[in-house]
Amino acid sequence: MSPTPSFTLDVETATAFRDWLFETGVENYAEPQIANPLAELAAAIDGELHDSTEYVAISASTTAFPPTDRSAGVDDAGSETH
User: CB within 8 A of 14, min separation 6: which ones?
Assistant: First the structure.
């Protein structure tokens, strides 16, 4: 198994990233498959920010999900997207 990718952000950048994730999640509230993971990531970063004074280390991994109708390349009008 490969190691989990990680990166380090300064507190100011991590705060801006957390805020963007939260705001984007709120904007997509009608689509929980988008909003929920963004909110969870924002909350995780927020927890790290409370424990940090200078830098925040963030690790990321992916989970494979089966495709949904929305990700099948069809827009809301039913036309194929390219």
Answer: 45, 48, 49, 52, 56, 58
Helix (H) and strand (E) counts for the chain?
2, 2
Say if CB 11 and CB 62 are below 8 A apart. Answer: no
Which parts of 1-82 fold into alpha helices (H)?
A: 11-27, 32-50
pTM: predicted TM-score of the whole model, two decimal places: 0.66
Note the pLDDT of residue 82. 47
Q: How far apart are CA 5 and CA 61, in angstroms?
A: 7
77: pLDDT confidence band, cut at 50, 70 and 90? low
